[in-house]
Structures are given as C-alpha cells and as structure tokens.
Amino acid sequence: MPTGGHLEQSDGTSWMAMYALNLMRISLELARHRKIYADMSTKFFEHFLYIASAMAGMGGKGLWDEADQFFYDNLKLPHHEGIKLKVRSMVGLIPLFAVEILDDEILKELPEFSERLNWFLNHNPHLAGLVSHWGEKGMGDKHLLSLLRGHRMKKILLRMLDETEFLSKYGIRALSKFHEKNPYHFYVDGQTLTVDYTPGESTTDLFGGNSNWRGPIWMPVNYMIITSLSKFHQYYGPEFKVEHPVGSGNYMDLDEVSKELSMRLTKLFLKDEYNKRPFLGTNDLLQNDPYFNNYIQFYEYFHGDTGRGAGASHQTGWTGLIAKLIQN
C-alpha cells in the first residue's frame, strides 16, 4: 500500500472461503465414486474453517463492524491496529457467497468424511464455533456451512434489500446509493481520497476507467447473490423471512427473494410500460428501429438507477447468465 502496511479484504477472504467450499463439494461428489477423494473433502473443509478464523480475527476484531452491522475491509498500517474502510460496497455482501449445504444422505454415504469432520470439530472448538449451525439440522435434515449466522445475514440483507442503498429497480448495485449524498473520504499524506456512488460510467481513470464496483449493476455478482440465497433457503426453509423491499411491510422467504431479484434483472431486457427496453437507454435507433430493437446486447454492467447498458456491449460470458436466471 502507498501508506505502508496492507489491506485485509472482506471480499478476497470471502472468495477464498467460497472456493474452499466449492472444492469440498466437488471432492465429495468424486468421493461417491472413488473413496480416496474423501480425504480431500476433509482438507477443504479445514481450509474453510481456517479462512473463517482469519476473517474473524483480522484487524484484531475481525472484519464485521458491530456498530454498522456490515463487513468492511481493514487497512492495517504500520504501528496501528487497523482502520476499517467504511464503504458500503459489494465487499460487504460477498461473505454471503461462502455457503454450502450438506444433507444427511451424503454424510451417511461417506462415513470416513463424516468421522474426520466431527473429529476435527471436537478437537478444534475455537474453529467449530465459526461454523454456522453445523450441529443443528435445517429443512430436510440438511447441514449448513457458512461464514454467516442467521442474525448477521439478516443484518446484511437489511441493507442489500433497501432501495435507498443497494436495491435497484433492476438488481443489486455494487455500491450503496447511500454514498451518493454521503461520499466516503480517506485522508492520507495531505490527500483526500473519495469513494462516491457512480451508477454508470466511471468518473476517474482508475483501473482503466472500470466502475463495476462503484455503483452499477453487475450481472455475475448478482447471480452469485441469487444462488447463495437459494442455498440458504434450502437450510432455513419457508419460515425464515425478511422484509423485501425494506420498509414495504412485505415479508418473503429467501427463495422468494431470490426469484424476485431474478425478475428485477430480467426487466433490464424486457420492454417496459413505455415499450422500451431499459438496457437500451435513450438510444432512439436501438429502441425503435425494427432492425435493431429485438437484438439483445449483453453489456458489461448496467446503470444502477436507470438500467442502461454501459461498458462493453459484448460481455456474453457473464451477462449471459441472465439466460440461466430466466430458465430457473
């Protein structure tokens, strides 16, 4: 870092926790055919716990901020215990992605994995306490592996499903709209560094002018949010409800929330009440010309307020995920 020290990242750490759980799931499926992979499953389970432990201890108090009820990055400076960078961004939502569901069937089918897992938890109680509800079976005798307990998840969703913060008419913004009127300022070496809500194209040349993380709607992380909520629902079931949108008085279970978010993303491409496709913005030719208006482009990201497509118009590799959401 230019300031010295290093950055303890909520998003980077959560990605690695998710990665460990993904590899655990893959190795468990392989172990059904070749038992040797059960050892690898245990290894990845242990890695997940060690990553969760690191996340809980970063900055001395972890990356979770009790006052704001949100995850933040922590800037660890020389001779300083750390400064939480209180930017309400996708950084604080990505811990949702580290979630996996295991049912009793696979634990019975692979007793070696189950025995080693329980041995490890019994001999490492400080790590066992980090596994959310592992010993408590959820819907359909399922077990939950997650960085988040239900209380923290609800607190994160309280911001994510708030239309004055992350929730847009067309999906989840990468940065809270809160920062539109409340930019985050960081002061260092006589400079003021600012993060504000930028719903469309970047206003700076940083990172090549890429503003995916500064306010727009970005399809791949929206897709991950939706699939993660679906996984949580498999454990918590229909009794676990959250208000959506916040302030509406309307309560939904997590599966219903995931489907409603999918619909918001789908609306980017559908014609609205004015017979316009939001992703085409105010481009009259593309909106109205019969030779253009039914050809769908897969933009890199979308304006956090209007849904207008921005960045490259050919990012089928990730924006094409909309097809999967429509299919579901």
Automatic annotation (TrEMBL):
<dbReference type="InterPro" id="IPR012341">
    <property type="entry name" value="6hp_glycosidase-like_sf"/>
</dbReference>
<dbReference type="Pfam" id="PF22422">
    <property type="entry name" value="MGH1-like_GH"/>
</dbReference>
<protein>
    <recommendedName>
        <fullName>Mannosylglycerate hydrolase MGH1-like glycoside hydrolase domain-containing protein</fullName>
    </recommendedName>
</protein>
<dbReference type="GO" id="GO:0004573">
    <property type="term" value="F:Glc3Man9GlcNAc2 oligosaccharide glucosidase activity"/>
</dbReference>
<feature type="domain" description="Mannosylglycerate hydrolase MGH1-like glycoside hydrolase">
    <location>
        <begin position="147"/>
        <end position="316"/>
    </location>
</feature>
<dbReference type="InterPro" id="IPR008928">
    <property type="entry name" value="6-hairpin_glycosidase_sf"/>
</dbReference>
<dbReference type="GO" id="GO:0009311">
    <property type="term" value="P:oligosaccharide metabolic process"/>
</dbReference>
<dbReference type="InterPro" id="IPR054491">
    <property type="entry name" value="MGH1-like_GH"/>
</dbReference>
<dbReference type="InterPro" id="IPR004888">
    <property type="entry name" value="Glycoside_hydrolase_63"/>
</dbReference>
